[in-house]
Amino acid sequence: MTVVLDASALLAYFQDEPGGGAVEGVLAEAVMSSVNWAEVVQKSVAAGVNVDGMREDLAALGLEIVPFTPEDGEMAGRLWLQTRQAGLSLGDRACLSVGMRLDVPVLTCDSIWATLGLPLDVQVIR
Question: Taking every annotated instance into account, which residue ranges of this chain make up the domain PIN (predicted)?
């Protein structure tokens, strides 16, 4: 495992948007929080996408959906103070928390993350 994907990054890959190629290049070594997976499913359903089998298809490409632990929840809650001015959602903070726990970079489309001064490598893909 080399990176944690934010929901925005995986959606960029699905929708063939700028930055999607960067995600394709790391899927075999990527993880995503179960919280962020819920975001991907929600946005896909809202767009009329049939999500049946989507998780299994991604697993076949190497993406691992990892549990959001109580420790991740505590970190996400603590990150609120440092990130509230930037407007980060609970899902955003969930992704950052998992990246911090695993000590690996996070990939996102949200450029504000790179300005937060957090103790992890944030890679903005577009």
Answer: 3-113
What pTM, to 2 d.p., does this model score?
0.95
Tally of domains in the chain: 1
Question: In the chain, what's the furthest Cα-to-Cα distance?
Answer: 38
- Boundaries of domain holding 108: 3-124
Using DSSP's 3-state secondary structure scheme, residue 98 falls into helix
Tell me, what CATH number does 98's domain have?
A: 3.40.50.1010
* 50-98 pLDDT tens trace: 999 999 999 999 999 999 999 999 999 999 999 999 999 999 999 999 9
- Cα 90 to Cα 103: distance, rounded to the nearest angstrom: 19
The CA dihedral of 16, 17, 20, 22, to the nearest 10 degrees, is 140
